[in-house]
Predict the 3D structure of the following.
Amino acid sequence: MSSLVPICARSCALVVVLCLLAGMVQPAAAVIVSTTTGNTTAPGDDPGWANVGVIGTSSGVYLGNGWVITVDHVGAADIDLAGQNYDYVPGTSVRLRNPTGQGLTQFTDLEMFRIEGDPGLPSLPLARESVPINGAVMMIGHGRNREAEPTHWSLFPSGGNTFWFETGPPGDRSGFTTTSSQTMRWGTNRVENDEARFGENDFGHQVEVNIDNNGDVLSLFTDFDAMGGDIYEAQGAVNDSGGAVFFKRSGRWELAGIIHGIGTSDDQPSSAIAFGNVTYFADLPEYRDQLEFWMSLDINAPWQHPLNPFDVDNNGQLTPNDALLLIDELEDEAGALPAPTEDMLLGSRPFVDVNGDNFLTPADLLTVYQELNAMAAASNLSAASGMWSTGGLAGDLEATVVPEPSTVVLAIGGALLLAVGVYSRRRARTVASGWV
């Protein structure tokens, strides 16, 4: 029987995995390598060693543009990168969400946050596709070290429990005993597809893992093999949670996963890493869109759409609806914009700060109005297709045309004048009342 264990510093309870046999999942720790106690400096073929750092006693990964990713059961905090501490920016933590329609928890066990200062590290390329079965990965994490010599255990079932006793070889199980010290280390392994353990499921070689009710994580996994494994066969250990999993695709390393748990046998001691254990890592392509969204967001203009300032309703294109939304917002709430929350940005609230000045004013509506007029002037309307072509605007956007678009633009122009009047009256009342 296998167990799921979170690999963090605090104690963690039994968890449930997709169609998993009864067992335990734990949070993960330092990468254990079967053939060496070394691998504590960057490998010759370096996928991004310096981008992996220490958060408390666990791990985190610097993505770029001031953003760090770890797991929620580790949490947002200061991170040490190559011996230099970088402070967590309070209020910037974002918990990533699971895909909808799959029966998953709303939030997953992944968390992003910003740090103060520039560590001078490159942004990590993010995987677009899952690592294939038998794909070779490199794990890097700041988990527990292991004793130099292997350990063997004899197992004795009694009263519904299994007792593990250290013994001489060969024993019933073998592996390594971990120590209380920790080190950043790298090792390698290959992605598995163990239907005997997990049964058939709709996710292919991807499994759904939930550790300590921290949220479902769409995950891939590796198996710690005693024989026939990689030369640096690796397994996650305590405090590896938040560590990186890299995959080399078409000659380029990419960040493919974040370590978040290990699968162990029933009643396996927390200090034991046994052959046959499993390392779980979040399948990052499932969450790539959210990662790119937040990494592209300008922290100095959080209400401006990070990819296309004119896309007020965040539907991926510029349409008259963007201007109409601004009109509604100007009537309801104009002036200085509040500090955004995650729900406000990822929810239905529009990106109203078109010009990026942190105020909602008629100038934002005017900017959209001018862009719509420019699109109409530069485009050849096609009644057959019912589309405006943007003629090479950033993002190659297309905007669906409603009947008689010139009427819509004229109406927006009239609404712009009305909005200016409403804003001016509201501004006068606000100043008179002493609000700023």
Remarks:
- The helical segments are 195-198, 288-296, 320-332, 342-346, 362-378, 405-432.
- The two ends are 64 Å apart (CA to CA).
- The mean pLDDT is 80.
- Residues 405-432 form the longest helix (28 residues).
